[in-house]
Amino acid sequence: MKISAKTKFVVIIGDPVDHSLSPAMHNAAYEKLRIDNEFIYLGCNVKIADVKKVVEVMRVMKNFRGLACTIPHKIEVIKYLDWIDPVAKRIGAVNSVVNDNGVLKGFNTDWLGVIIPLQKITSLKNKKIAVIGAGGAARAVVYGLVLKGARVKIFNRTKEKALKLASEFGCLGGGLDEEKEIKNCDIVINTTSVGMHPLEDKTPITVKYLTVSQIVFDIVYVPQETKLLKEAKKRGAKIIHGIEMLLFQGVAQFELYTGRKAPIKVMRKVLYEKN
C-alpha cells in the first residue's frame, strides 16, 4: 500500500462486519492495477442507529469515495442519500454509495452477483427457479431473475412475507410447507442465513427435494461450502458457491468507485484463498 493524504477510501459498514472478505478482495485489485496509492478499502462495524452519522461524515470528506453497506444497513442508508439509481429504487435496497463531490448516489450491485454466475452456466429465460427466503437479499435476487424472464417462486418460513415480496415483483410465493414443489425447479437459490454460523449444520429446505438436474446456488459464503451445497453435490447437482455472488457484486462495485475495469481473476483468487 502506498497511502498518502490524497488517497481515497471506501468503507464497508455492517453489524457485524468482521467476517467480510471485501477489503481483501478490493485491496488486492488496487494493488494489481497499481492504484493502491489512489484507493484503500476498509471495514467498520456500525450500529444501525449510527448510519446517518456515517453518511454525514461521508458528505463532508472529499476523500471518502465509497460506502458499501451490508446487513442490516442496505435499507436504512437510503433515506440519507441524494439520488438513488432506478434499479436500487426498484429493489428497495442500496449496497453501494458513491460520493461525487458531496453528492451521494446509491446503487445496488447485489443482483449482478447472482445473475452473472448463473448466466455463465445457463439462460434464465423461462427457467423454473425456487428462491428460499424473503428478506433483503431475496429482493435483489428476485429482481434480477424476473428481469431475465425466469419463472420464480419464493419459499419462506413466513408465507405472508413470501406473498408480499412476490406481489411486488410479479411472481409466485408460498410457505416452506410447499417445498416439495422445489423438486420440479431447474434452479434453487438460498438467500437466507441458514448454513452460516451458528447454523452450519442446517439446511434451509429438506434436501430430499434436490435433484441431479438442478443448479443449486447458496449466497452464504462462510463456510465456503455450506451443508446445502454439500447435499446438492452428493445428489449430482451443479453447485455455485456464495463467493461467486460476493465476487461479481464486488466487481460492479469496484468499477463504480474507481472507473476502471476490475481484475476479476485476482479478486476471485483472494476470496478463495481467504475463505
Topology, element by element:
Layout: E1 8-14, H1 22-32, E2 39-45, H2 51-60, E3 64-69, E4 83-84, H3 86-91, E5 96-100, E6 103-107, H4 110-119, E7 128-132, H5 136-147, E8 151-156, H6 159-169, E9 172-175, E10 187-190, E11 215-218, H7 227-234, E12 238-240, H8 242-258, H9 264-274
Parallel strand pairs: 1-2, 1-3, 4-6, 7-8, 7-10, 8-9, 10-11, 11-12
Antiparallel strand pairs: 3-5, 5-6
Helix pairs in contact: 1-9, 4-5, 4-8, 8-9
Structure description:
The protein is α/β, with parallel strands linked by helices. The protein has nine helices and twelve strands. The protein folds into two domains: 8-108 and 246-274, 3-Layer(aba) Sandwich (Rossmann fold), CATH 3.40.50; 111-240, 3-Layer(aba) Sandwich (Rossmann fold). It has helices at residues 22-32, 51-60, 86-91, 110-119, 136-147, 159-169, 227-234, 242-258, 264-274, and strands at residues 8-14, 39-45, 64-69, 83-84, 96-100, 103-107, 128-132, 151-156, 172-175, 187-190, 215-218, 238-240. It has a six-stranded mixed beta sheet with strand order 2-1-3-5-6-4, with helices on both faces. Strand 8 (151-156), helix 6 (159-169) and strand 9 (172-175) form a beta-alpha-beta unit. The model has no long low-confidence stretch (mean pLDDT 95).
